[in-house]
Amino acid sequence: MKTSDFDYNLPENRIAQEPWPVRDECKMLVMDRATGALEDRIFRDIAGYLKPGDILVANETRVLPARLLGAKRGTGGAAEVFLLREVLGREAHTAHSAVWEVLVRPGKRLKPGAVVDFGEIADGTAPLSAEILDFVEGGKGERIARLTTPLASLDEALHTVGHTPLPPYIHGYAGDEEMYQTVYSQRETSAAAPTAGLHFTPELIKQLQDAGVVWKTVELQVGIDTFRIVEEENPADHAMHTETYSVPQDVVDACNTAHEAGNRVVAVGTTSVRSLESAWDEEASALAARDNASTNLFLTPGSTFHVVDALITNFHVPRSTLMMLVSAFSTREHVMAAYKHALESGYRFLSFGDCMFIH
């Protein structure tokens, strides 16, 4: 297996630059994971593929206003700081100060000791500042930074000066930023959206629940690494990023009930897959509840899926870990054939694009 096995030509004009005006009217390519057979549908048709007792498991994380645009103190040069994850244990966090791992631009000018201010400065103080403390070993533009604010809390400061980050392949979108959040999102813990869930509407969720489909949520804090391709030609050499996730006991119970009754666990997105499969206890051969656990699970062809029986997922970046995950869930040949069909049939790709239902 080579990384190039998961490569394909994705024309720029096939990358969706804005969401569907009505979330559940996007296209949905339905694929039989065993045979590769394909059907062209729209997303709200998902109701016809689910039956009473099936369980949908979605990632309820919400995207942070993690993109900070400011100026380097002392020079006034434009600088961007992108929040990746909090760094716990380095120093005490307070309402006014916390340490984060961040991605910075321009990296050459933002070395340890540099300070970036965000927002309009009043009385010599900015609403939010970031002091660069250290480099991240092996990182590419990543830094450790201390965020400070004179406002009531860092949360208030972020919502005052921060922006909801969009993926780097979406250019110039000026629409409603809420369209890059799922309608069921809860805590702001992620740098990117679990995009397979963007297609659900409150009305569709209620319709499914009224029909006997069970709706449950987990939380996985999505990191910026989700956008990165695998640079190593041998996927085994790729260092999978680590993310924090939680699987509540009620989700464990619902999945067990579904399987005992012969029903399916349907993951809404690859982050839900990684949460559920990471929570599998090999020694006990059972799904176990997790709270703020860490996972770097890397699912590739040959991996075993213990929990998930069907998957709703968007179309992914070439040469990515997500291409490998969906290929592991079916086969590489079936997935590549499905992507070829989607490109030839006018499907829109990536975060704001259309989706697949693999069952």
Secondary-structure topology with pairs:
Elements (H helix, E strand, L loop, with lengths): L26 E5 L6 E5 L12 E5 L2 E2 L3 E6 L5 E9 L10 E9 L9 E4 L9 E8 L6 E7 L5 H8 L26 E3 L11 H9 L3 E7 L22 E5 L1 H12 L4 E4 L1 H9 L1 E2 L4 E2 L2 E6 L14 E5 L6 H9 L2 H13 L10 E4 L1
Helix pairs in contact: 5-6
Describe this structure in words.
With 359 residues, this protein is α+β, with helices and mostly antiparallel strands. It has 2 domains: 244 residues, 3-Layer(aba) Sandwich (QueA-like), CATH 3.40.1780; 95 residues, Beta Barrel (Thrombin, subunit H). Helices cover 17% and strands 27% of the residues. It contains 6 helices and 19 strands. The chain has a 9-stranded mixed β-sheet. Helix 5 packs across helix 6. The mean pLDDT is 94.
Q: Order of SSEs, N→C? A: EEEEEEEEEEHEHEEHEHEEEEHHE
* Unreliable runs: none
Tally of discrete structural domains: 2
Secondary structure: number of strands: 19
Briefly characterize the structure.
Helices cover 17% and strands 27% of the residues.
Provide keyphrases for this structure.
alpha+beta; six-stranded antiparallel barrel; QueA-like; 2 domains; nine-stranded mixed sheet; Thrombin, subunit H; 6 helices; single chain; 359 residues
